[in-house]
Amino acid sequence: MEGEPLLEMHADDARSRGVAAGAMVRVFNDRGNYQCKAIVSARARPGVVNGLGVWWRKLGPGARTSTRSRTRS
């Protein structure tokens, strides 16, 4: 298991967003956000990020998530 929250990004995506390997990045959607360390890797397909491991809110830095799920139509 990883020792900290990690996110794999393709080199093209990292470059276009100004993200350097090892930088802390904010991952977010309409249900919440968290911070993790970026890893630039060819394992991630362009346009896709890979969140590595499972992190409980209390263990992840800067995590803010919604505990209620919205109904989508």
Write a structural description:
The chain contains one helix and five strands. The chain has one helix at 11-17; strands spanning 6-9, 24-29, 32-40, 50-52, 64-65. Strands 1, 2, 3, 4 and 5 form a five-stranded mixed β-sheet that branches. The mean pLDDT is 81.
Can I get a quick summary?
10% of the residues lie in helices and 33% in strands.
| Helix residue percentage | under 10%
Shape: globular
**Helix and strand pattern:** EHEEEE
Structural class: mainly beta
How would you state the average pLDDT, rounded?
Answer: 81
Rg, Å, rounded: 13 Å
What's the tally of helices?
Answer: 1
Beta percentage is 25-35%
The profile of the biggest β sheet is:
5 strands, mixed
Q: How many angstroms does the end-to-end distance come to?
A: 37 Å
Weakly predicted, low-confidence segments? none
Got a strand count? 5
